[in-house]
Amino acid sequence: MNDVPVNPQLPTVGESAYQKIRADIVFGRLPPGRKLKLDRLKADYGASVSTLREILNRLQSERLVIAEGQKGFVVTPVSIENLREIAALRQLLECRALEQSFRAGDMEWEGRVVAAHHRLARMEERMDQGDRSGTEAWKQYDWQFHQALISACGSKMLIDTHAAVFDKYLRYQMIALSYRGEIAAREHASLLECAIQRDSARACEVLTRHVAGGVEHALATGTIS
What we know:
This protein has helices at 13-26, 38-45, 49-61, 80-104, 107-128, 135-150, 156-176, 182-197, 200-220, and strands at 35-36, 65-67, 73-75. It is globular and about 55 Å long. Residues 1-10 have low confidence and may be disordered. The N and C termini lie far apart (61 Å). The chain has a three-stranded antiparallel β-sheet with strand order 1-3-2. A hairpin with a 5-residue loop joins β2 and β3. α5 packs antiparallel against α8 (182-197). It contains nine helices and three strands, in the order αβααββαααααα. By secondary structure, it is mainly alpha-helical. The chain is 69% helix and 4% strand.
């Protein structure tokens, strides 16, 4: 009998479980403070106990879960101070990446930015009309647009670090279900205009308002203490 070929592009069970658990934390399906019991995780994500321990240790290194001694792991709690720190770090990293990306970006990069903004803008139109059924898709399109803006910066380390910080910022937005409506949509349109004009100085000004506005709007919901 011939062996069945293994597709190296398919994720392992452990990697697939890691991605699912991580996404559930980022998108708030596993809320802050939730105890992560291995037997429940095994049933929900189809991974062995030993694999789950490795996953939780990996997520602990990303500060998405914390260990409670012999009691196991919990999803990392949230706080106003932590949100402000994450937002400041996101702003710092993204402004630096924007400057480099705008200098190096070619027509293909510009096309990616325009396409990503189009998807985001269409979703924001739906949100403005009161349709909140696509909240997760909205935040995914939001991430894709900001990632496209910095994708030509030339530094994988900068992109990866920004992505990790952005996910933590995103977790706060999902917990607060924070959508600022037309204001955010206008800021995204301004960032697109800055990208086309390669105006990184103005883009950083817009981004600073954008991030600060997102923080204050999330805090205004009262769900983060």
